[in-house]
């Protein structure tokens, strides 16, 4: 079984901060283990660490730990130190900027004064920002197909900017995994670019943003010929602690970085101010690029994190299988949630919504991006979903997620709509009243899973979504229903709030159900196919959250319309029942109605 049940055995001990909480924002940062903090604390208490820029014993001890951890980190990515070096940075964004600054300074030293930059539309904001340093020569690839055509030399050069026409250096950047949707992009592109016979590609380098990918996917740089020239990672996304990033440099491509003009303490061998001369360090790549005193305490903590992570979870392959299993469970469970009229509760954002995308780790990470849709087909603000989940101690992330290209393509927001939204006051991270413009959401809700996520976490989110957003009273329309439409009453104990498989298509559905079930305008569907544990149809089920509603008489027998207290489970009425379903537009008014009674 792909699911790692060992996690359940140590989670309470290693992650006590998760007691009665469901954390599903591992794409932002994963969580640190208690034993990691204890090991780091013991190391700090037991040893005297000094500034590595000194020659004292404490300083040399720090230097030894830094060198050892640097090599361990390279080995973690299966990168041979003979072919790769690792530069410590504050975070992945700082690593991206280090590469961008080097290309900018190289360009300003050339006759053209610019460099060409191509990036994928799924790029994080930090990758997009590099375009501002190019001097104007940049292109956003709108699809994987565009990248493929470009790599094959079939993409029209006129659309790429003047940098592709001469000998100006170029940089092609893309994320290994979309931080918004979890979609994984082909890692083969970097090797294809290096092997390309196209003349315009000969001076173009690759930059891989692996910050999201490395969270729960093994990264293998065992073949330096196919590896990216530059790769950025964030260690806190992998281990939870420390707050540290890195730039992994392919040694044969490192000469580009030597063009960087700025230098800081520790990166020069000699320096004068009268006259202005400088001799930079060139012994190693990292010596020339790590400005100032290294965050050596953080690097020491990283060494602890590498050891604890392996002891708890084994290999990254095991973590990948574990999170893939959970992502499938979550996606299938959310896919099965439907309103009483048959409308799906969740609108998903991935490239293969009908092809079980979460079953293929090569193409999809353990991230589910979605929005909630009301029974009337309108979107519910993503910040409201996050806020309501937060009240239940379920922690998600919502918004544009620093992925403007993803928002534009997956939410189908046109440039003019972005401009109008901006004119209306929409701002990233601060537009709670403007999250839905012209009926379109301007962001998503994201659930991202990690190594210490459990089945219970996934089921908690499914229960929350069902209990919060699915009700027998969804809109203001008062609708008459009859047996001709097919109505069943399901009476399960509210205490049984766990999940069970109803069928292969529907996946996991809440067993906490006690309400009427009505098909969506499909009177020809037999009742048994609407509610039958052995059926093959998708069921229209929702959790019950009843207001007190009057009873209706059917013959001489009184039936509580929605409470179902006098009806046996899954009983089909023997004669037509005509009744009315009261409804309220919002959860607020529903709560007021219930509390008033």
From TrEMBL:
Residue ranges annotated for the Aminotransferase class V domain, each copy included: 22-461
Protein name per the record: Aminotransferase class V domain-containing protein
Family matches, as Pfam families: Aminotran_5 (PF00266)
InterPro entries referenced in this protein's UniProt entry, alphabetically: Aminotrans_V_dom, PyrdxlP-dep_Trfase, PyrdxlP-dep_Trfase_major
Gene Ontology annotations of biological process type: molybdopterin cofactor metabolic process
Organism expressing this protein natively: Hymenoscyphus fraxineus
SUPFAM superfamilies membership: PLP-dependent transferases
GO MF annotation list: molybdenum cofactor sulfurtransferase activity
PANTHER family: MOLYBDENUM COFACTOR SULFURASE, MOLYBDOPTERIN COFACTOR SULFURASE MOSC
């Amino acid at each position: 079984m792909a699911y790692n049940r060992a996690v359940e055995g140590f989670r309470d001990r290693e992650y006590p901060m998760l007691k009665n909480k469901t954390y599903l924002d591992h794409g932002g940062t994963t969580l640190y283990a208690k034993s990691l903090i204890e090991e780091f604390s013991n190391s700090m208490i037991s040893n005297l660490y000094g500034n590595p820029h000194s020659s004292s014993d404490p300083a040399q001890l720090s230097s030894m730990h830094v060198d050892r951890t640097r090599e361990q980190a390279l080995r973690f990515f299966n990168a041979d130190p003979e072919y790769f070096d690792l530069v410590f940075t504050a975070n992945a964004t700082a690593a991206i900027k280090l590469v961008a600054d080097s290309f900018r300074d190289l360009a300003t030293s050339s006759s053209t004064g610019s460099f060409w930059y191509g990036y994928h539309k799924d790029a994080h904001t930090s990758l997009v920002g590099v375009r501002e340093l190019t001097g104007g020569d940049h292109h956003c690839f709108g699809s994987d197909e565009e990248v493929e055509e470009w790599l094959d030399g079939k993409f029209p050069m006129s659309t790429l900017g003047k940098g592709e026409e001469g000998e100006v250096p170029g940089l092609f950047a893309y994320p290994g995994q979309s931080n918004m949707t979890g979609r994984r992009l082909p890692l083969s592109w970097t090797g294809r670019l290096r092997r390309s016979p196209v003349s315009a590609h000969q001076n173009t380098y690759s930059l891989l943003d692996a910050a999201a990918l490395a969270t729960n996917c093994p990264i293998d740089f065992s073949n330096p010929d196919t590896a990216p020239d530059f790769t950025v990672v964030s260690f806190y996304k992998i281990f939870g602690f420390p707050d540290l990033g890195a730039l992994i440099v392919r040694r044969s491509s490192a000469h580009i970085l030597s063009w960087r003009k700025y230098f800081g303490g520790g990166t020069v061998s000699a320096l004068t101010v009268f006259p202005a001369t400088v001799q930079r360090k060139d012994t190693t790549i990292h010596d020339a690029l790590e400005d100032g005193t290294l965050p050596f305490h953080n690097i020491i903590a990283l060494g602890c994190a590498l050891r604890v992570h392996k002891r708890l979870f084994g290999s990254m392959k095991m973590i990948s299988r574990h999170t893939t299993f959970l992502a499938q469970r979550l996606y299938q469970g959310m896919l099965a949630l439907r309103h009483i009229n048959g409308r799906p509760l969740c609108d998903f954002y991935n490239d293969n919504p009908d092809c079980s995308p979460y079953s293929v780790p090569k193409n999809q990470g353990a991230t589910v991006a979605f929005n909630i849709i009301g029974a009337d087909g309108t979107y519910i603000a993503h910040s409201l979903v996050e806020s309501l989940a937060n009240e239940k101690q379920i922690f998600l992330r919502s918004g544009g997620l620093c992925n403007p290209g993803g928002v534009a393509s997956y939410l189908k927001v046109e440039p003019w709509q972005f401009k109008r939204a901006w004119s209306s006051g929409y701002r990233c991270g601060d537009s709670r009243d403007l999250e839905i413009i012209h009926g379109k959401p301007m962001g998503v809700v994201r659930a991202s899973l990690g190594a210490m996520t459990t089945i219970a976490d996934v089921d908690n989110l499914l229960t929350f979504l069902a209990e919060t957003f699915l009700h027998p009273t969804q809109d203001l329309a008062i609708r008459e229903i009859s047996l001709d439409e097919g109505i069943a009453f399901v009476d399960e104990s509210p205490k049984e709030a766990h999940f069970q498989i109803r069928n292969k298509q529907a996946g996991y559905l809440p067993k906490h159900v006690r309400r009427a079930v009505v098909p969506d305008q499909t009177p020809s569907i037999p009742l048994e196919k609407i509610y039958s544990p052995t059926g093959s149809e998708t069921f229209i089920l929702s959790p019950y959250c009843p207001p007190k509603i009057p009873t209706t008489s059917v013959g001489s027998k009184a039936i509580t319309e929605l409470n179902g207290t006098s009806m046996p489970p899954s009983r089909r009425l023997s004669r037509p029942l005509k009744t009315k379903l009261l409804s309220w537009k919002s959860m607020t008014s529903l709560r007021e109605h219930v509390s008033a009674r």
